[in-house]
Automatic annotation (TrEMBL):
Residue ranges crossing the lipid bilayer per the database entry: none
Superkingdom as given in the UniProt entry: Bacteria
Ranges for domain HTH cro/C1-type: 7-61
Organism: Paenibacillus pinisoli
Keywords tagged on the record: DNA-binding
Protein name, per record: Cupin domain-containing protein
Signal peptide: none
C-alpha cells in the first residue's frame, strides 16, 4: 500500500505545506516526510489526524489507486460489437466486479438466436425504443424508462421489437473479473 504517496499527492494538490500539516497534527516534519516517502508506517490514529488536516476521509488515504474514481469521457469510451448481430456496445465504466455499458439494438436485432446464460447479475434500463426480454419462462415488453433485472445464469434474450433503434443501459455484476459483452 502506498499511503505516503497518497498523502503527498493530496497535500500538493491542495497546496498545503508539510509545515502546515505538522502544525495542525503536532507531528514533526521529519516524521511526516518519512510517512510521505513510505519509510515509516503511521498508526491509524496518526493517519486520522493527517486525514483531518487534509480534510479528506481516512478511508480515502487507504484506497489503492485502482479503487479510486475512474473517469471515462464520452470521447474515450471503448466501443465493441457483441453477438451474431454485431450489436454496438459502448463501455461506459467498470470496476473490478461491475461493468456498465450502452447497447444499441437496430430494429429486429437481438442478443442472439437463442437465449444464453453467463455468470453474474444484470440490471437493464431502456433508454430508447421498445424491447422484448425473456428469461426462462418469464417474458415482457419494455419501453423507454422501463427497467428490469435478472440473474444471468438463467438463459436470457433481449430483442428490439420496435421500428427504430433501441438503446439499453446494462450494468453487469460478477463475482470475478470475467465479464460478458467484452
Amino acid at each position: 500500500m502506498d499511503i505516503g504517496s497518497n498523502i503527498r499527492a493530496i497535500r500538493k494538490r491542495k497546496a498545503i505545506t508539510i509545515a502546515q500539516i505538522c502544525e495542525e497534527t503536532s507531528l514533526s516534519q521529519g516524521f511526516l516526510s518519512q510517512v510521505e516517502t513510505n519509510k515509516t508506517s503511521p498508526s491509524i490514529a496518526t493517519l486520522e489526524n493527517i486525514a483531518n488536516a487534509l480534510k479528506v476521509p481516512l478511508a480515502y488515504l487507504l484506497l489503492k489507486k485502482e479503487d479510486r474514481m475512474h473517469i471515462v469521457r464520452k470521447s474515450e469510451r471503448k466501443v465493441t460489437t457483441s453477438g451474431s448481430e454485431q450489436l454496438k456496445v459502448e463501455h461506459l465504466s467498470s470496476s473490478k466486479n461491475v461493468k456498465m455499458m450502452l447497447v444499441e439494438f437496430p430494429p429486429g436485432a437481438s442478443t442472439g438466436e437463442e437465449p444464453h446464460a453467463h455468470e453474474g447479475e444484470e440490471v437493464h434500463v431502456v433508454i430508447k425504443g421498445k424491447i422484448y426480454a425473456e428469461q426462462g419462462e418469464d417474458s415482457a415488453e419494455f419501453e423507454e424508462g422501463d427497467s428490469f433485472s435478472w440473474n444471468a445464469c438463467t438463459p436470457h434474450l433481449v430483442r428490439n421489437i420496435g421500428d427504430e433503434q433501441a438503446i439499453v443501459l446494462i450494468s453487469v455484476y460478477t463475482e470475478t473479473d470475467q465479464q460478458p459483452y467484452a
